[in-house]
Structure to design on (324 residues):
């Protein structure tokens, strides 16, 4: 694996304008991702995961104000590119996104082969024949038989439609593929099939993945890295093995305790309380109101502490000499 970061995100922020004030959905997010690496972004519903994904592709609704920060792709700040260049060179070409519920958004009256070939025709200007050949190769890659190219979405199962959507994202051979809850609508066996496809693509093509999910269990197999998001911020980022074995943030520890395990009699732990509103997040640590380990200093906004190489945590418990 290349150890230079392919994607470096720093201090990414965005807010939605609403009649009740700005909703700060992404509030100072930073991370890096290497070539061939998969990062799982974990977090409860509403913490800003989809907003982060859309920000990376600059695919945001009109009521977004102040998208700021840096998104460096192989060293170039693509957030600063003019929209035309971003559209021609980055979006769907070098970074692709499989949106939440995309498999339900396939065009019902167009054969799936044509839909998978379309990004090549639009973004690369390829002929239909050449694009269809590449679509067929991509179908093979995601484990869909070639004769499915001629089918309509309604003729496919949910798992097959999800593979088609994945093929649509992969057909231009992007360096980074972001998947927003790619398996949440599927049954467990079908989910496992999709995760295996992702693993194979990662190994064969060296594609980097950002996988957004609230499902700790299915994501753990693919993840090299884990980012835990809470109320618009990353509260912990670490190598997956380290994160699962030694979660450092109290929220991560509670969450790990709340993952049902097959061979363990432990009952899932419910984390009492609600995430704060992103309209007016509390001053200081945003998790403090729900945190069993909170102490005096949590009234102040926590700094990000580095525990080991590539392991950061946003929590005062990790400031030297601090703690309850
Ligand atoms: N267009 C919008 N206008 C105003 N607020 C929005 C808009 N889109 C999202 N939000 C708000 O921004 C916050 C983050 O939403 P986002 O969809 O990014 O979260 P999420 O973690 O992906 O949640 P989910 O898993 O439920 O999709 C939420 O409070 C949501 O209500």
């Amino acid at each position: 694996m290349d150890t230079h970061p392919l994607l470096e995100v720093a201090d990414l922020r965005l807010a939605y304008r609403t009649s009740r004030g700005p909703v700060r959905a992404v509030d100072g997010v930073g991370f890096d991702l290497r070539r061939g690496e998969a990062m799982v972004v974990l977090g409860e519903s509403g913490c800003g995961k989809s907003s982060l994904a859309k920000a990376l592709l600059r695919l945001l609704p009109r009521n977004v104000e102040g998208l700021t920060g840096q998104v460096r792709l192989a060293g170039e700040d693509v957030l600063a590119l003019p929209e035309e260049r971003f559209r021609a060179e980055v979006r769907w070409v070098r970074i692709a996104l499989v949106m939440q519920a995309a498999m339900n958004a396939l065009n019902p009256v167009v054969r799936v082969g044509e839909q998978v070939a379309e990004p090549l025709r639009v973004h690369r200007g390829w002929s239909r024949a050449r694009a269809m050949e590449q679509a067929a190769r991509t179908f093979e890659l995601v484990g869909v038989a070639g004769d499915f190219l001629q089918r309509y979405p309604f003729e496919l199962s949910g798992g097959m439609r999800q593979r088609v959507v994945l093929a649509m994202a992969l057909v231009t051979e992007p360096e980074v593929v972001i998947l927003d809850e790619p398996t949440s609508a599927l049954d467990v066996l079908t989910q496992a099939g999709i995760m295996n496809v992702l693993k194979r693509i990662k190994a064969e093509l060296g594609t980097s993945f950002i996988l957004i999910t609230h499902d700790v269990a299915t994501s753990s197999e693919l993840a090299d890295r884990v980012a835990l998001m809470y109320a618009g911020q990353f509260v912990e980022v670490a190598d997956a093995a380290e994160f699962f074995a030694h979660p450092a943030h109290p929220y991560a520890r509670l969450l790990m305790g709340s993952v049902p395990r097959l061979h363990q009699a432990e009952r899932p732990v419910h984390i009492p309380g609600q995430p704060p509103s992103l309209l007016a997040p509390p001053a200081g640590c945003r998790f403090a109101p729900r945190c069993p380990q909170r102490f005096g200093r949590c009234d102040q906004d926590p700094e990000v502490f580095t525990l080991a190489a590539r392991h950061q945590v946003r929590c005062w418990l990790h400031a030297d000499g601090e703690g309850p």
